[in-house]
Amino acid sequence: MAPIMRISVTRTGGFAGIERQAEVDTTARPDADEWHALAKAVLAEGTRMPPSVVPDGFSYTIAVDGHTVHCADPALTDAQRELITRVLNEGA
Amino acid sequence: MNQSPFGTSSVDSRVPTLCTIVPPHVLDRLASAEDADIAQAARRTLARDAALRAARRAGVTPALPPAPRSAGTAAAEPRRTVYDAEHRTALPGTRVRGEGEPPLRDATVNRAYAGLGATHDLLCAVYGRDSIDGAGLPLNATVHYDRDYDNAFWNGGQMVFGDGDGRIFLDFTLALDVIAHELAHGLTQYTADLAYQGQSGALNESVSDVFGSLVKQRALGQSAEQADWLVGAGILAPDVSGEGLRSLKAPGTAYDDPALGKDPQPARMADYVRTSSDNGGVHINSGIPNHAFYLFATALGGPAWERAGQVWYDTLTGGELAVDAEFADFSRLTVKTARARFGPGGAEDEALVKAWSTVGLPAEEDD
Lengths: 92, 367
Description:
heterodimer; A: 92 residues; alpha+beta; B: 367 residues; 5-stranded mixed β-sheet; two-stranded antiparallel ribbon; 11 strands; globular; disordered N terminus; EC 3.4.24.- (chain B)
């Protein structure tokens, strides 16, 4: 796989039904390796098709350099949760 | 934050908290049973239920003594347990308060506990249903889920509440209607089980907003005219520009804020939003049936949980609402249901037909 540069997270649904989207470009980041390891784990764990969601649950679309996977609350893996939290908090 | 909706229990304390566990048609059969004791007990229950319903229809609070425990009735107390996720995500977390146990110092736990009770009480005292499954299902909630978690959800077996991030959202247990909304997802799951996608998903959401609002209004002792008809009032952080997350009275006006955006809800079919996001806009297009309920309830006036709520409850639980029902299926079925319960051509029938017409949905089979 080529070096990961862009990681985006789109969160939809939830009680409020308000969509949030954020993206991180890892190119110039000192912790790029950490991001890449996390992103690889998430790509390996995610599903290509959106999973069924629970009422009012968030669902997530994670895109890593064009590869897209889906996941939904509350059945997130630790890596998915960490990546989602970091991208939504630190991304633009 | 609103005044506490849990303190005013004037409604609750006067209505015996007894639910019919055995359905009326079974009681009918029992009432003609050979065994004289069983038959008598069943007849007593039927008469008592009928009196309660008649009294409710007439808008008076029945002063009936609690019925003796007998075939068909039982004290339908809730069976609540609140858990604390301690800011992690394992469910259900640590058990912190069970049924009948005294309040804790943690107000979030106590609000969740009280909210479960208020919802159980609406189902039981008003609609004669023992818990969300009609069979005394224990009610479980987990609070303090994850960190800064901006959501509350129903996972199919329990409610889960986040504390909010403090910047946009506050603790999701601050709004009684949010707690009741989540529990109403359980009611839907055990009854019509509306598929959580597209129009049936928006109906699922709308039913939760409606019963969430009814629990709040009943706890506050508010009539349809007095109610704010907001969902999620009190969970938006102080700097957010908005009254709540949704408005049944005026969908699309609940908030308008730089961080949150603008409330996207339509009030009429002409403005139905087609989107693949949010399971096909389940939290968006729910504004349409939400507004129809508001129009219906306010046209009737008085306590919305009585006549208007009864029609919605009957429609949801009556067995005729399909899993994949669309708005028009629901609107027609509510009218049929209202006519079955209150008679055709009455105030309920007229108000409901007009409400659906206003939002652009049919009332009759051939519309």
